[in-house]
Specification:
Chain lengths: 301, 242, 368
């Protein structure tokens, strides 16, 4: 069963091509990630799928309904959490939840099972105004509000932006549990490390999809052996590698530099000798596995 | 004081009424070091940083930044540090050149010096073609690189970066880090506050604040060994969850 | 229906939890009415004047006594020579000097005419005019008293009678204006701000993606303000009746209906503003510049429309407030019924229908 189907969607604002010929499908009960930096077109795509914007070209269906013709049916059957946690700051936690339950024609009690896991964590603060909650708690409340009418499909636009690692971790755990209840989830994030938590991902940049697959498969596509390089001086190391005639890519990665070579018969010892000739010491070169970020950069190059 | 220590903090504390936002933190940062200052929302890192850049008065403790005392010489501190945050960076309705000139002017650079600096900076960032375009029209990544370079315009001893690379694409982010490495290599100390743990991996040393206290302080490598973690994210999770 | 009630409940939470909007809602009407009623007035009271009396005879003394006995003037200073007049004005307190010529009484008896000069400080032309009118009135009254035994043929004595506001109380003029401003402010500005606030917060996106229908969102947003505006109108009318003793000559019921009509037209304008503004700030600017200024300047509330240049007179016709002021003045002061103001009512009704139609058409069910 296909839950979300996007076919050749394009959208432009004035001179900017926000989305260019986007196509993908999300299966029912799948946790699908849209991974890309700010300005990649993620929010525009979410707004088209939640019937808030018209696409210039292409068609899309959500839960079997066309986003243009059947927009009313879609509005009844999806949950949407926009980029910033859209809550009423001057309403309490409980009032926010109650309000969203009411406008979707349901009650908190009716669907309490679905949100119970999440809501119990913020229930002790139910009389606190939403504006006074921490980022993590706001995020949980916003998710509860998006879930309260038991949607078939859940759209989460950058739900973890501005939230600390602990809350991020908890949030992804919650998404996994929701998925087990049969809800299809489309989530967007600029954080490459979150991609691994999705069933399948689409890498998106400048309105174009670079690749769609499972996180494991995407990493396997990486065309070249990739090496961790370390030396005593990071800045000189980067400069030296950039100046090396055989380099294919040089990207700092935390305490290492990820290096790929454009020769098929690359020998790390040659590189080591070169770096030593540039007065670097403590040189350490080892083979490593590509990450999603490496793939993203290779594809976006 | 030791000339190599550009930030010296001892028992620095900030109370808001009964609430201790920053609880007797102690650490030192070397010249040319990239120091990561991590913590969850509400752990107290913003409050601590405000004290270090001289816009909030400590309740007790000692701190010396760029050679000046945070209690008595905040004006001198401000002259000797740079600051960049994702929230406030540059004026969107001024051109690249106008922004550089404006910030150069704030720090009292001479007209001639501003001209030299602008030319050098525009060339280094490859912005020749957009030098007279409005900053608002530039891609986010360019803005951030420009913003970082502008924060260095008066050759500060320390530059404070508040969550500098959130949401930027991975390639631009690396170009940004290359700029940081370059600044550090030239002797500028870089103080990064963030709650994005992958940013932490790039720092020479990181401190992690939990509930107003510094609970860990070391190189990312040693912290990962100490907490038997694969990455800084895991280190953080282990620490924050107790 | 349950959805709708839930929505309205939320709106009231917003209003009652925001001190600023509460202040605008309830503080403003009271402050404005009191301000306009007490402070800003065309009447004069206890104006300081000075006397330069070259005759010092029985007649001038009598006239001076009459003037000082009135509540309008208090004699601050008696000066002796022409040269002092200038310096008296320069000191600033004295607003007028009465200069009686030499041999005032003698001239009056012998030549049947005598001159008194009224010199007023015209830096404030309105006050100067009023002072000179009041002094004239006192002089004329005195003349009448003196001449009452003598009959002069062919004398025309104009007698002016001010109808509907016999005491020329300026509060009568201001109440309809203030009521109009406040209803406009509360209705149009507050609704436009409350709708744009949802856009800014991003909650509008969620509302749009919910099964709520657009008209439900609009009515839900507008309903609390209809209610609050009606309360405001009642408070204003009560204040003016009980504090300023302003009469309501006509039907209260008609007054209420006309007010509701005006409130609805203002709300429709508010929705219209919210559809074209993305932020609360823009909505507020548009409301203030686009609605408040015309209401204050062009509705005939402060400046009479008949004395405006022709283009402005034409423009004033498209301002709903102009028609509403005519209507409430008619009902409150003249006591007229619908048969006299049906034309204005129809114009207002037409405008309201137009604004509602336009705002419903303009209201977007999507973000574009």
């Amino acid at each position: 069963m296909v839950s979300i189907s996007v076919k050749h969607i394009s959208k432009s604002y004035k001179s900017v091509n926000a989305l260019q010929d986007i196509s993908f499908e999300v299966k029912e009960g799948e946790l699908f990630g849209l991974i890309g930096p700010d300005g990649a077109g993620k929010t525009t795509l979410f707004r088209i799928l939640t019937t808030l914007l018209f696409a210039d070209e292409g068609t899309a269906t959500v839960a079997g309904f066309d986003v243009v013709a059947d927009y009313k049916s879609i509005r009844n059957s999806v949950g949407y959490m926009p980029g910033k946690f859209s809550l009423y700051q001057d309403l309490t936690v409980e009032e926010n939840l109650d309000f969203f339950a009411t406008i979707f024609g349901t009650t908190i009690e009716e669907n309490y099972d679905l949100i119970k896991d999440i809501y119990v964590q913020i229930e002790p603060f139910k009389n606190r105004r939403a504006g006074k909650l921490s980022g993590g708690m706001k995020q949980k409340l916003a998710l509860s509000c998006a879930l309260i009418h038991k949607p078939k499909v859940l759209f989460l636009d950058e739900p973890t932006t501005g939230v600390d690692p602990v809350s991020r971790k908890e949030f992804w755990d919650m998404l996994k549990r929701l998925q087990q209840k049969g809800i299809t989830i489309l989530v967007s994030t600029p954080y490459m490390d979150e991609a691994a938590l999705c069933d399948r991902i689409a890498l998106i940049q400048d309105g174009k999809i670079l690749e769609i697959d499972t996180p494991e498969a995407i990493v396997k596509y990486y065309p070249k052996p990739i090496y961790n390089v370390r030396a005593n001086n990071m800045y000189q190391l980067i400069n030296s590698l950039n100046a090396y005639e055989h380099n294919h890519s040089v990207y700092p990665f935390g305490e290492f530099v990820h290096y790929t070579d454009n020769r098929t018969d690359f020998n790390p010892d040659h590189l080591k000798a070169y770096l030593e000739s540039r007065n670097l010491s403590n040189i350490h070169i080892e083979k490593t596995i590509a990450t999603i970020e490496d793939t993203f950069m290779e594809l976006a190059k | 004081m030791n000339n190599n220590k550009v930030i010296q903090v001892e028992g620095l504390t900030k109370m808001f009424g009964d609430f201790t936002a920053v609880n007797a933190i102690t650490f030192e940062v070397d010249k040319g070091e990239i120091f990561g200052f991590l913590g969850a929302n509400g752990a107290g890192k913003t409050t601590a940083m405000k004290m270090l850049i001289g816009i909030s008065n400590p309740t007790s403790g000692n701190a010396n930044v760029a050679g000046f005392d945070v209690f008595t010489h905040t004006e001198n501190i401000k002259k000797n540090i740079g600051y960049m945050s994702q929230k406030f960076a540059l004026y969107d309705d001024l051109t690249v050149r106008e922004n550089i000139t404006f910030f150069g002017g704030i720090y009292g650079l001479s007209r001639k010096r501003i001209k030299e600096k602008s030319d050098a900076l525009i060339e280094e960032l490859g912005l020749q073609n957009v030098a007279n375009k409005l900053v608002g029209a530039l891609p986010l990544g360019w803005k951030q690189k420009l913003s970082f370079s502008v924060s260095l315009i008066h050759d500060p001893k320390i530059v404070f970066l508040d969550e500098p690379t959130g949401g930027v694409d991975p390639i631009t982010r690396r170009q940004f880090w290359e700029l940081i490495y370059k600044a550090a290599n030239q002797g500028t100390t870089v103080f990064v506050t963030t709650h994005y743990m992958d940013e932490a991996e790039y720092c020479d040393r990181v401190s992690i604040m939990v509930n107003g206290k510094i609970e860990a302080l070391d190189t990312p490598k040693k912290l990962k060994e100490q907490f038997k973690a694969e990455n800084m994210n895991d280190v953080f999770l282990k620490l924050a969850r107790g | 229906m349950k959805r709708f009630i839930g929505f309205i409940k939320k709106e009231f939470y917003h209003i009652f939890r925001d001190r600023r909007s509460l202040f605008i809602l309830f503080g403003m009407p009271i402050a404005q009415i009191l301000l306009f009623g007490f402070a800003i007035t065309n009447e004069i009271n206890n104006v300081d004047i000075a006397i330069l009396d070259h005759s010092k005879d029985a007649t001038t003394t009598e006239i001076i006594n009459k003037i000082s006995a009135s509540k309008y003037f208090s004699i601050k200073q008696i000066i002796e020579k022409e040269a002092d007049i200038e310096s008296v004005f320069q000191k600033g307190h004295v607003k007028a000097v009465l200069n009686f010529e030499k041999d005032f009484s003698k001239n009056l008896i012998k030549e049947h005419r005598a001159t008194v000069q009224i010199i007023t400080d015209a830096t404030d032309p309105n006050t100067a005019n009023t002072i000179s009118n009041y002094v004239n009135a006192i002089l004329q009254q005195y003349q009448k008293d003196v001449n009452k035994d003598i009959t002069i043929v062919y004398q025309i004595i104009p007698e002016t009678r001010m109808v509907y506001n016999p005491e020329l109380k300026s509060v009568y003029m201001f109440v309809p204006g203030v009521m109009t401003i406040i209803l406009m402010l509360v209705s149009a500005m507050m609704t436009s701000i409350s709708i744009t606030r949802e856009k800014e917060l991003g909650t509008m996106e969620i509302l749009l993606v919910s099964p709520l229908k657009p008209f439900q969102v609009i009515i839900g947003k507008v309903f609390p303000y209809i209610f609050l505006s009606i309360i405001n109108a009642v408070v204003i009318v009560m204040l003016s009746v009980f504090i300023f003793k302003m009469p309501v000559e006509g039907s209260l019921f008609l007054l209420a209906l006309e007010s509701i009509l005006f409130i609805i037209s203002a709300l429709a304008l508010g929705i219209l503003i919210s559809t074209i503004s993305a932020t609360q700030q823009t909505a507020m600017m548009i409301s203030l510049m686009g609605l408040m200024l015309p209401v204050i300047l062009l509705s005939g509330f402060i400046f009479p429309i008949s004395s405006m240049p022709l283009p402005l007179q034409v423009i004033s016709n498209i301002i709903p407030a102009k028609w509403f002021i005519i209507i409430i003045k008619g009902i409150m002061l003249k006591g007229v019924g619908l048969q006299f103001i049906w034309k204005e009512t129809m114009i207002l009704l037409g405008m309201t229908v137009f604004f509602i139609a336009l705002s419903v058409k303009k209201y977007k069910i999507r973000l574009e």
